Amino acid sequence: MVLSSIRLSLGSLGMCVLFACTGSVNNENRIPQVIKAVKDTCNLDLTGGRRLIANLSCTNCHIVWDNGPRMRKNIPLFTELSAMDSVKLRDYIFKTKHNGMYIKDFPDAGKRIDSLSECDKNNLIHYIKDHNKDHINSSSKNK
Asked: How far apart, in whole angstroms, are the C-alpha atoms of residue 141 and residue 143?
């Protein structure tokens, strides 16, 4: 009795393994894996960033020279902006610090900076970050 129940259990286990391993592969039931490749259509362009800086008049408030006079105490120099992390710089330019400043001093600049595309924002940040690289390279050559 015990022997027949063991044989029956092993037989059904063997059949399960046999069907599981040799089952027909049905390609129709497989879920296709789709990999999306996101193409960056924005080419970083220093000339485009320089053009945006000129159009927005950023250097009117953020002086380019290290020892230049500050317009106000709370406005960082351009070299200080370029030393910021890119994420903090994006937050500084487009979200927090400029909120409300344009209305008083430069009302047209506020409209222009709000209407920038993502590509223009990336070019602007790329130009600002590159300014610090040029500044560091030129100061290290003078030593």
From this structure: 6
| Domain range list for the chain | 46-141
- Residue 49 CA to residue 134 CA, distance in Å, equals 15
Q: Which residues contact 123 (CB under 8 A, 6 or more apart)?
A: 42, 44, 45, 46, 48, 49, 52
In this structure, are residues 132 and 49 in contact, taking their beta carbons and an 8 Å threshold? no
**Whole-angstrom distance, CA of residue 122 vs CA of residue 129:** 10
pTM for this model (two decimals): 0.57
CA distances from 102 to 38, 70, 84, 110, 121 (A): 35, 17, 22, 5, 17
Tell me how far CA of residue 40 lies from CA of 37, 69, 119, 136, 141, in angstroms: 10, 39, 10, 29, 35
The residue assigned the tokens 């027949």 is 4
CATH class of 46-141: mainly alpha
Say if CB 76 and CB 59 are below 8 A apart. Answer: no
pLDDT digits (tens, 9 = 90+) for 34-57: 666 667 677 888 888 888 888 877
